[in-house]
Amino acid sequence: MRRIDALAIALGFFLLGGVVYAGLQGFGIKAQQAGIWTQAVLVGGLLIWLLSYVTRVFTHDMTYHQQIKEYEDKMIELRWANMTPEEREKLQAEVVEEKDTLSS
């Protein structure tokens, strides 16, 4: 995320608070009560975002983890492509042997 994106998101939440506040006042809620409910809505939204973020961290569904996995997959493909047919056969035999050992 770029710095301008973070600023745009912050400005968006600031404006959202103003819209919620004005909307509540438009429905006839007093200014003090509208302010309290506006804060409650924004804090609730923050808590929901925080919960989703923590969930993504624990499930490794973050951009960083995805980039690492893509890098590892590309490196494996590159190493496989650079192997000779004999090296590939030897590696496949080792993998089959290891699977047999683990399944026993």
Short description:
InterPro entries: DUF3007. With 104 residues, this protein is mostly helical.
Would you kindly provide a written description of the structure presented here, covering whatever features stand out?
The chain has helices at 3-26, 31-58, 63-82, 85-103. By secondary structure, the protein is mainly alpha-helical. Helix 1 runs antiparallel to helix 2. The chain is elongated, with a radius of gyration of 27 Å.
Write the layout of secondary structure elements.
Elements: H1 3-26, H2 31-58, H3 63-82, H4 85-103
Helix pairs in contact: 1-2
Treating each run of at least 4 consecutive H or I residues as one helix, how many helices? 4
pLDDT below 50 for ≥5 consecutive residues: which ranges?
A: none
Shape: elongated
- Rounded mean pLDDT score: 91
Radius of gyration: 27 Å
Percent helix among the residues? over 70%
Order of SSEs: HHHH
N-to-C span: 48 Å
Structural class: mainly alpha
Say how many strands there are: 0
Attribute tags:
single chain, 104 residues, mainly alpha, DUF3007 family protein, membrane, transmembrane helix
